Amino acid sequence: MRKRKIIFDVDTGSDDALAIVSALLCPEAFEVLGICTVAGNRPLPNTTDNTLRVLELLGRGDVPVIMGAEKPLVAKNDFTRVIRQVLETKNEKGETIAYHAESLPIPPTTHTALENEHAATWLIKTLMAAEEKITLVLTGPLTNFALAYRIAPEILDHVEEIVIMAGGDNQTNSTGAAEFNVFFDPEAAWITFDAGLKVPLTMMTLDATHQAYLTPADADRLRKMNNPLGQFCYDEITERLKAYNYLQPLGTPDIAPIHDALCVMYLLDPTVITKKEFLHVDVVCGGIANGLTLVDTRIWTPDPKNVNVCFATDTAKFREMICSIFERSVH
């Protein structure tokens, strides 16, 4: 297997964390050059601290973490752009139910993010200095990449592929129109999709990631690893199971999509995606459909195709791939 150089850009909550872990446990496939952080699932200080905690858990404090944008390009300045999704609640026992805790349930880190550096400028410097092309894995709002691309569009000469968790066709969550990462910063998504005219851009939609789920049986399997990582995986999957059952019931109960990890599984084995089409994708910025990813599925369209849109996942393959990767940590 050819080894890819990759850069993550994350808003680390539970599923970003599991995506990072899965990549770092595959050193034969990936060299992680750095991890940029952005506000999204939680504010920037939390997403950065959570990222550092994951690296501490894995003993990978050598991987640089670079803080990025605290706010989206435009959206937070428009009071009409209101999320219509319950992100946190209490159950009948008074316990907090949320997709992403403010702090991941693992020990605090002894490391810090790079000082006097911003994700956008770090991306530019790192990409421009690269001797071989780099794959970008963007699993949060796309603000950092959009800033870098606007400042220095020539960075795409050094990008092999961009893989993002974003958008949806028949599935949404933040509103009736939009998926969270795009809704949080639709202008950044619009800028990012332009890059797909120049380099391969692959989008894991909610349609595909809702099929990239784990179950209570998977959580139990990982707890049996009997090490700190196994316990962490168990805790995160269990909390996600509660969150989906309470906040966003899916067609099947007791399943927890691990959205962001699908980006990593796809890079390891593209056949985990069972339906993918190269299409034109646009983004609605503002108004009642703010954050809508407009996927043009017409056979003929005058608009240029820019995104490899992933619609469906081999669930069994995803579950076995990711659990097997986590189990590497016991050897």
Q: β content, as a range?
A: 15-25%
Helix and strand string, N-terminal first?
EHEHEEEHEHEHHEHEHHEHEEEH
Q: Given the structure, what is the number of helices?
A: 11
Distance between the termini: 21 Å
SS-derived structural category:
alpha/beta
The main sheet orders its strands as: 3-2-1-6-7-8-13-11-12
Mean pLDDT: 94
Helix amount? 25-40%
Largest beta-sheet characterization: 9 strands, mixed
Approximate shape: globular
What is the tally of beta strands?
A: 13
Uncertain segments of ≥5 residues (pLDDT<50)? Answer: none
Radius of gyration computed on alpha carbons = 18 Å
Task: Please describe what this structure looks like.
- The model has no long low-confidence stretch (mean pLDDT about 95).
- The chain is about 35% helix and about 20% strand.
- Helix 4 packs across helix 6.
- The chain is of the alpha/beta class and about 325 residues long.
- The protein has helices spanning about 15-25, 45-60, 120-130, 145-150, 180-185, 185-195, 205-210, 215-225, 230-245, 260-270, 315-325; strands spanning about 5-10, 30-35, 65, 90, 95-100, 135-140, 160-165, 200-205, 215, 255, 275-285, 295, 305-315.
Q: Could you give a short description of this structure?
A:
The protein is an alpha/beta fold. Helices cover 34% and strands 20% of the residues.
Spell out the key features of this protein.
331 residues, alpha/beta, 9-stranded mixed sheet, two-stranded antiparallel sheet, 11 helices, 13 strands
